[in-house]
Design brief:
The protein has about 450 residues and is of the alpha/beta class. The protein has 15 helices and 23 strands. Strand 4 (about 50) and strand 5 (about 55) form a beta hairpin.
């Protein structure tokens, strides 16, 4: 074994959150090491090269809004291509063997009665969001909401099947969760912390208004700045705390440090041995902080054929077949570029298929929505995130019913010298890249303050 090395802080995880925490600490004058299990940085941002485009495409996160100040600054700093989302024309909505068309911001095909039910349901959801406290477990109706799933909450005010399905899409669309498994308190709070579902789905000025083509470049830029401090292919196996020193054992070596930042999902933290064990409440929190499902495909065509039909390439479904599709080609593309998302219920229907079956399923849905030309792409790529060994699912873990009100107050608290980052630890924009950076900044600033003071409690 290599000799034990010394540093101020070890960061576990080389995604956006871990790298930003390390860079924030480095800029404050502290020594850091980043241990990343994968052979690449970027975590849930992954941007392979398209042979047809001769440019990078995104099989992970890629949207960033003007409100997302931290990620926007990094995009500019590292010259990452950023494109306004194409929305001119009508969107499609799938319902079994039928396809409906309508304006962005609507659910095409709803009857007048269903549209009124959907509008009333949105009002009820926003009214519930308004009552959620910043620390959601302190809300007046926290225990009632946390005792039920979001599906149960929706069903308290019965609506028609397609309007109901539109609400059941939300947990999957934003967090990869099933409406039948996520706490109602958790989801309503998450939606509020991200600006609400109308803003989150807004492709003109909101949460889906701008997208990168190569989001992994942000992490690669931070990694370049950190240099040899970033250790890829180095999963952490054991973290031992003794007095004021922490020993972190990884495949790349062993480090002694003063503090640790765990910037990974709870599912990945459970693969690390802690000595002494993490507090019982923390372990219970990780067990009840589940990963959702998220599968994404990128499909390249010789031209954006759907635009000639007055379609904008955006596809949704009220039958659980897919979450969404988007045209990422910008205003004057040389090629047609679509992405499809399968999260929550649609992912469960897609993930278990063999690769060629999965491809044919994706192309078949696009053909139903946009035309038969969709069956003949120039290039196809996909990523099943549930199969990725160091991710284990979607980008934002979610709490099961009962967890928020019983364990929530410990959510962001350190366990001695061990701090927590990742988008699921953020107070704002949870599930977004901006949330990952916000949580990293918080953890790094708390550690930096303790390092400046030399000792004591946070």
């Amino acid at each position: 074994m290599d000799s034990v090395k010394e540093t101020d802080v070890v960061v576990v995880g080389g995604g956006l959150s871990g790298l930003f925490a390390a860079l924030t600490l480095r800029n404050a004058g502290h020594e850091v090491v980043v241990l990343e299990a994968r052979n690449r940085v970027g975590g849930l941002t992954y941007s392979p090269m398209s042979k047809v485009l001769a440019a990078r495409v995104d099989l992970g996160g890629q949207w960033a809004a003007v409100r997302h100040k931290r990620i926007s600054a990094l995009i500019a700093k590292y010259n990452v291509p950023l494109t306004q989302q194409f929305v001119r024309g009508e969107r499609a909505c799938l319902q079994d063997d039928r396809t409906f068309y309508g304006a962005m911001g609507t659910v095409p095909g709803l009857s007048e009665k269903e549209a009124a039910e959907y509008k009333q349901g949105l009002k009820r959801l926003y009214d519930a969001m308004d009552k959620i406290a910043e620390d959601p477990w302190e809300s007046a109706d926290a225990r009632d909401l946390d005792s039920m799933t979001f599906a149960t909450w929706v069903d308290q005010e019965p609506t028609g099947p397609r309007a109901r399905a539109s609400f059941f899409r939300m947990p999957g669309a934003y967090y990869g969760a099933l409406a039948e498994e996520i706490s109602a308190l958790e989801l309503i709070h998450k939606l509020k912390s991200c600006g609400g579902p109308l803003w989150m789905s807004d492709a003109v000025e909101g949460g889906q208004s701008r997208h990168m083509m190569g989001s992994q470049m942000v992490s690669e830029g931070m990694a370049r700045e950190l240099g040899d401090a970033v250790k890829p292919s180095s999963p952490v196996r054991r973290i031992t705390t003794a007095g004021e020193r922490v020993t972190v054992e990884a495949e790349a070596g062993t480090w002694k440090c003063k503090y640790v930042v765990c910037a990974t999902s709870p599912a990945m933290i459970s693969q690390i041995s802690f000595d002494p064990p993490l507090p019982a409440k923390r372990r219970l929190l990780h067990q009840r902080f589940a990963n959702g499902r998220n599968t994404k495909a990128v499909i390249i065509y010789e031209k954006p054929f759907w635009r000639a039909r007055g379609l904008n390439g955006n596809v949704i479904a009220t039958d659980g077949s897919l979450t969404a599709a988007y045209d990422l080609g910008g205003e004057n593309p040389d090629r047609g570029i679509l992405i499809t998302l399968f999260t929550g219920t649609p992912a469960y229907r897609m993930d278990e298929l063999a690769p060629e079956q999965r491809k044919q399923r994706v192309l078949g849905l696009l053909a139903q929505a946009l035309g038969e030309e969709a069956l003949k792409p120039a290039e196809y790529m996909d990523q099943v995130w549930a199969d990725e060994p160091w991710s284990g699912g979607a980008s934002s873990p979610f709490m099961l019913p009962g967890a928020m009100t019983t364990i929530g107050p410990e959510l962001r608290e350190p366990c001695g010298p061990i701090y927590w980052a990742g988008t699921h630890m953020s107070k704002e924009f949870r599930g977004y890249m901006e949330g990952a950076l916000s949580a990293a900044e918080n953890a790094a600033e708390r550690i930096s303050e303790r390092l400046r003071r030399g000792a004591g409690q946070a």
